[in-house]
Amino acid sequence: MKTNIALHGKRGTDLLHDPLLNKGTAFTAVERDALGLRGLLPAHINSQNEQLAKVLFTVRHKPTDLEKYIYLIALQERNENLFYRLVMEHIDEMMPLIYTPTVGQACQKFAHIFRRPRGLFISLLDLGHVRECLANWPYENVRMIVITDGERILGLGDLGANGMGIPVGKLSLYTACAGVHPAQCLPVMFDVGTNNRTLCDDPEYIGLHRERERSPLYDELVKEFVVAVQEKFPKACIQFEDFGNANAFRLLHEYRDRICTFNDDIQGTAGVTVAGIYSALRLTRGRIADQKFLFFGAGEAGIGIGDLIVEALKAEGVAENAARKQCWFVDSKGLVVRARTDLVAHKLRFAHEHAPVANFLGAVEALRPTMIIGVSGMPQTFDEPVVRAMARLNERPVIFALSNPTSKAECTAEQAYQWTHGRGIFASGSPFAPVTLNGVRHEPGQGNNSYIFPGVGLGVIATSAARVTDEMFFVAAKTLAKLVTEEDLAHGRIYPELKRIREVSGAIAIAVAEVAFARGLARMIRPANLQAHIRAQMYQPEYEDYV
């Protein structure tokens, strides 16, 4: 996908200050003369390869991951082609810096490292003026919007407007992992206050210094935003990200059948987890219909995974009621059972008949699950007694510690392998280094949503889909699982190597597009060659010749 500079008419410093068009020292002598750049750049002309080597060297010599993050964001803000070439060619190294786990630390310090605004900041002060906010965005063909209200950033809680690092990071992954053009991406911070007292008392905090809005004004602002997007960017998909549980479920229910939208914490997490389950079953040689799943955490991620597991079981011929009874949840009050009177609506469909159980270890012993899935944001809750119990109950215990960032994981990869004597099948939300135990190297899988949402988004964009459905996430999960090779499994990996992420996203996009056409959701005529059509949508971070 190319950007024609003639359509912008930019010259001189305006051109140098546009990160989508700027090539820095790579502008040729002819371009410098023709575009008013003579004297504005050093004399030596670099190739993009030379620039890439320089920025890679610089990143690697920054003293901390946070300093690396700051440098990378600054690079993105001045030269997006160079930024994305760096990320794409060194994805294993760069993804943990631009997203989890480093983005969590960056969000915590966001106000203090804030340099230049990126995206739209829409606050309660903009009620009645949201259309004006969207009209101020400089790019017309917005196709993917990631919006957060900052209430539940990763496992770190309420970070208010500091949570803007999440939409920025997510959209960087849409581009790096699936080739969604940067000009089609819009990060949005929905600033409705924060209940984080430390932030409110910090004079450098960039958001509203007030408690969170809980009145109907909140819904009024959301509605105004949704309506304005339909008018200004009618083909855009809205991804809700890191909202608190109550608003996440409610907003998804309110809008999913009316506009093109999804919640990655609910549906994307479900997709990547179900893919990991399918891969794990290739190692255990089991059937999904014979599994019992026990979750620690019954929020949006856990319930979303449970719902998609139910769909996977139904596809194997299991009745829905029976499928739900294969999924059990433990929350902060203990096992989710029918007799409890404190359950919110989204937990009720997984509340089963059982005696109360106070803690997770008790639930493991009582229910004898084959797989445990941590989505609690509570670190070290898969402690040694829990993991050893799973190893006693199962020849190949499956342990998914999915909470982000790394500091919030329910257990580490090393703990999972040690406490199961190397028999455990482990995955985490943020990356862990390989573990060598008794001479055997174990490579933990990273059940990161970046394997799912970029490909889903690309498929939605490529077909101008009117809706995003659970079926799309189900086919995305199955596609991802099929791309896990025998070599991956031999190394203990239940996800493909990250260096194949563009291939993975392209395959998922094709599967999602097939669903869009089959269900009448595509707002375009099916191309003769769907695969070629999708590949043609994928941005490549190459410099153009402007003259």
Please characterize this protein's 3D structure.
With 547 residues, this protein is an alpha/beta fold. The protein has 2 domains: 47-259, Malic enzyme, N-terminal domain (Rossmann fold, 3-Layer(aba) Sandwich), CATH 3.40.50.10380; 267-450, Rossmann fold. It is built from 25 helices and 14 strands. The chain has helices spanning 12-16, 29-34, 48-60, 65-78, 80-89, 91-98, 102-108, 110-113, 130-135, 165-178, 197-200, 216-232, 245-255, 264-284, 300-315, 320-324, 345-348, 360-367, 384-393, 413-419, 453-463, 470-482, 486-490, 501-518, 530-537; strands at residues 120-123, 144-148, 185-191, 237-240, 261-263, 293-296, 327-331, 334-335, 371-374, 398-401, 425-428, 435-437, 440-442, 445-446. A 7-stranded mixed β-sheet has the order 8-7-6-9-10-11-14, sandwiched between helices. A 5-stranded parallel β-sheet has the order 1-3-2-4-5, with helices on both faces. It has a two-stranded antiparallel ribbon with strand order 12-13. A hairpin with a 2-residue loop joins β7 (327-331) and β8 (334-335). α10 (165-178) crosses α21.
